[in-house]
Amino acid sequence: MIYGFYGGKFLPMHKGHLYCIDTAARQCDYVTVLMFVGGDDELRICAQQKDGYLSAAFRQAQLERVCALYPNVVCHTVDVTALKLPDGTEDWDAETPLVRQYVPHMDFVYSSEPSYGAYFARAYPEARHIIVDAGRKTYPISSTLIRAMTEMEEQQKWMV
After folding, report:
1. Rounded distance between C-alpha atoms, residue 10 and residue 89, angstroms
2. Torsion sign, CA atoms 57, 63, 105, 109
3. How much is the pTM?
4. Which residues partner with 74 through β-bridges?
5. Are the C-beta atoms of residues 24 and 110 closer than 8 Å to each other?
6. Which value, to the nearest 10 degrees, does the dihedral of the CA atoms of residues 53, 90, 95, 138 take?
7. In the predicted model, is pLDDT for residue 152 greater than 80?
């Protein structure tokens, strides 16, 4: 069996996220997708957002619908509210044991961010980091770009 892991905040979930999940599902026998909630970035972003599409409950339901499209993909939500560094930023090293509760072993860890490589190598030494569409050529979008869009119609074009 080949095990994969993909994690994110999905603020909001977009076609690039779906592409990464699809890639992992095609390459692995079993994929675990984790949505991290309660981080400082999320709390700050959601405080500014008014129409609910970034709430943890909405994103969790959306992620569950997406993962249900794949028989070999499961998803869970992980609350990281209490895991902060002294400066208030997220403590990824403290999150690692929570990830390991859901993914005790992984062969591949997926992301679109090459900068995550050093952390992944330390946290998941048995796993190979698979970078999916780092240049965002397949889906030239990010959650940050979607949140910056002023027209809901434009946002919805990229969201899942």
Report:
1. 18
2. negative
3. 0.93
4. 32
5. yes
6. 50
7. no
Is the pLDDT at 31 greater than 90? The verdict is yes
Query: Tokens for 1?
Result: 């069996």
Cα 141 to Cα 158: distance, rounded to the nearest angstrom: 7
Neighbours of 58 (CB within 10 A): 15
Domain ranges, ordered by start, for the chain: 3-158
Rounded Cα gap, residues 84 and 47, in angstroms: 19
By the 10 Å C-beta count (0-12 exposed, 13-18 middle, 19+ buried), 86 is classed as exposed
Bond into 104 cis (ω within 30): no
Residues 6+ apart with CB under 8 A from 122: 93
Do the beta carbons of residue 90 and residue 84 sit within 8 Å?
yes
Q: Please tell me the predicted confidence (pLDDT) of residue 148.
A: 85
The token pair at 10 is 């999905």
Strands laid side by side in the 30-37 sheet: 73-79, 30-37, 3-8, 108-111, 128-131
One-letter amino acid for residue 40 of the chain: D
Secondary-structure breakdown of the chain: helix, strand, coil percentages, each rounded to the nearest 5: 40, 20, 35
Q: What is the CATH number of domain 3-158?
A: 3.40.50.620
Tokens (6 digits) for 53 = 């599409």
